[in-house]
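We close this part of the discussion by returning to an individual protein. The encoding preserves chain order, so positions in sequence and tokens coincide. The sequence in question and its structure tokens are set out directly beneath this paragraph:

===
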Amino acid sequence: MINNKRLRELPLHLMLLPGVLCTLVFSYVPMAGIVMAFQKFVPVKGIFKSEFVGLENFKYMLSLPNIYSVLWNTVFIAVMKIIAGMVFPIIFALLLNEVANDFFKRSVQTIIYLPFFLSWVILGGILIDILSPSSGIVNQFLSYLGIEPIYFLGDSKWFPFTLIISDTWKNFGYNTVIYLAALTGIDPTLYEAAIVDGAGRWKQTLHVTIPGIMSIVILMAVLSLGNVLNAGFEQVYNLYSPQVYSTGDIIDTLVYRIGLVDTQFSLATAIGLFKSIVSFGLIVLSNRLANKYAGYRVF
């Protein structure tokens, strides 16, 4: 009996094998390079022969003049992305759920979902064109309203909010689909009972719809908290410039410049390891908070 069960499950395990191998090769094997964070790494000598320096790279990291502004930029941009990436999809999903015309609903879902499939290389070029202070359609509209053109991608005051809004525009269609799927799982008899009790659409939303998707909202929030230090390397790298380093430089772009541009591999590894440790701690903390206050656990 056991052997027959194993034979039936064998094709499923074989299907998993490529994914497992890719995870091992690209995620776990490279973790051996973490040792560079504790070395004065010299490429010619390699990992095994480079000098061990303990925590010196971490001490030097904390002495960098811009490290605290980079940390603040990362946390601010990431937190605002998380908030906007939850609030707008939930609101839009609730509104779209009220639409009775299925064709219109599916059309809107498709339209808002499309930007999610475009890379930031493509979207970066689109944003550079439409946000151009001289020829961009956004600034042309502002000029029509009598407002001076704004250099969204070159003004340090506007750049973080440009990142937040453009990231929300790109991803909220995907998140909206998740919440729409959660809405379909709500028992229709709950709405019927609410109608019998005299509840209007607003009361039904407050007392039936929102509680019905709250578990998914908590799950998405818990999973998002682990990305507090992930402000989006691809987006920032394709949009930022030295003019906006003061408010737009994040940990990932700092690691890129230090590690690949300046070839300070040990320092870049130390910064990356610091970020990973903090992110892991936030994931554990968020899971405990979700279990304590909402009775929900991810693992």
